[in-house]
Design goal:
about 375 residues, mainly alpha, two-stranded antiparallel ribbon, 16 helices, globular
């Protein structure tokens, strides 16, 4: 029997204590573990997420928790809190390849008991049934871009209206000129750093051939703002940060998308440019890095939709001031020890990007500058 949400005056808005975290983490494992128990990726993910987000350890090996028991335990919690728990279940299910149908059904049962309607659960069920094409459609129908409007596109500064959120724009001289102008900003400003970020990697500015869709280019500013490199591993961190900074619960679909691209390969393509490259979340330390990115996103000031932000209005701020503006906190020691790097560090750029940067510099007749980044850590 679904447990209703509490009235406003009876809602528990306090951070969860250790006992609640133990019950909830056991509930997540109970909902998502295959018949022979949680996989190693599921285990390390749960063990990383709960301490990062709550300060309390997860209980992975404790007694199972049923849907009704978890729903009763969370009876004083509101819709947003319960939805975050269901999203954690979906995330733990999405790292399975394949997703057993009984796991997808079990997560759906937990969501019903919690009175939660989570759009990405439908995506997980599509994956479990092998309907990968329909799952891709569900990302658009139930995810972040479902509410995208022409008014939102104003932050992208395109000269013409986009037919879809992730549409590419490769012939827009006015848009390209706006990006070109960032090169004239003082050193150390957010806008000047983004141009250095592009030059080091050989990226084309939006509005020019070979460029990323303007909406996807929005996340490039977050690489600089939140100090993430541009390997596939770093992309997982960036989208975890972006998804959790936004109180709009649909933003979770952005993290679900990159996990489906870069861990399981359920999606062949996404965001108008990304292509499937599985196996990255399972790498050592990545669960810690993603969990810390979510922690940092959650700690941003208020609710921030970084993909709908007008970055040009902030481009002349020093990077430190831009971080203060959004309340961006430093990475944890654990994330740094796990290998999280920034865009200007060894390991903060891919070999392909470094080659593209060198080729761009050669075509422009100037020396190549990586601004500190290299494609492999130095000894």
């Amino acid at each position: 029997m679904p447990v209703p949400f509490p009235p406003a005056g009876a809602t528990n808005l306090d951070p969860p204590d250790e006992a609640e975290v133990a019950v909830v983490s056991r509930g997540v494992v109970s909902a998502t573990a295959p018949a022979d128990g949680p996989t190693e990726v599921q285990r390390v993910l749960v063990e990383a997420l709960f301490p990062a987000m709550t300060g309390h350890p997860a209980s992975v090996g404790g007694p199972p928790v049923g849907a009704d028991e978890l729903a009763r335990a969370l009876a004083p919690r509101n819709e947003a809190y319960r939805t975050r728990i269901v999203q954690t279940m979906v995330l733990a299910a999405l790292v399975l390849r394949p997703i057993p149908p009984e796991v997808a059904d079990r997560v759906a049962a937990f969501a019903r008991e919690l009175s939660v309607d989570e759009g990405m659960l439908e995506v997980a069920q599509r994956f479990a049934s092998g309907s990968l094409g329909l799952a891709a459609v569900d990302f658009e129908r139930n995810g972040y871009t479902a509410t995208w409007t022409a008014a939102d596109a104003r932050a992208l500064h395109t000269s013409t209206e986009l037919a879809s959120a992730w549409e590419g724009v490769v012939h827009d001289p006015e848009l390209a000129a706006r990006w070109d102008a960032l090169e004239e900003l003082p050193a150390g400003t957010l806008g000047r750093r983004i141009t250095e970020f592009y030059r080091a990697r050989g990226f084309a500015y939006p509005g020019r051939p070979g460029s990323a869709p303007p909406l996807l280019a929005q996340h490039d500013w977050v690489h600089v703002l939140a100090d993430f490199g541009t390997t596939v591993e770093s992309e997982l961190e960036v989208f975890a940060f972006i998804a959790r900074a936004n109180d709009d619960l649909r933003a979770f679909s952005l993290l679900a998308m990159v996990v489906s691209l870069f861990e399981t390969g359920y999606l062949r393509a996404g965001a108008g440019l990304f292509e499937s490259d599985p196996g990255h979340l399972a790498r050592g330390g990545m669960a810690t890095r993603v969990a810390d990115a979510m922690r940092r996103g959650a700690r941003c000031t208020g609710s921030v939709d970084f993909l709908r932000t007008d970055w040009f209005a902030l481009a002349d701020l020093p990077v430190g001031d831009a971080r203060s503006h959004f309340g961006v906190i430093p990475k944890s020691d654990a994330a740094l020890e796990a290998g999280s790097v920034g865009p200007w560090e060894p390991g903060g750029i891919s070999p392909f990007q470094e080659r593209a940067g060198r080729e761009l510099a050669a075509s422009a007749g100037r020396p190549y500058g990586s601004f500190g980044a290299s494609s492999a850590p130095t000894a």
